[in-house]
Amino acid sequence: MFTLQASPYHEHGGEPKIGAYERSRLQIPGLRHIMMLSMTAAELEQRLSALEEEGVAVREVSHREIGDAAFRAELELVEILETRQRKD
To answer: What is the pTM of this model?
Structure first.
């Protein structure tokens, strides 16, 4: 499994944006799924929007809330359906 982000401190602090590093990871041959972890459902929607803006069409495979009373997070697995050229 690959990660799109190098670290939360890389380029734009783990914000839901796609930078050069993430763009290069999206070009890995055979990449079919992306697992996203966010603190809130709203952050997860921002991450999905960032993929859409980048020209990556996905479909949800699994969505779960993980954790317990002390810590909760949203986890979503998506399948890459299509990658189009970016609209700049």
So the answer is: 0.76
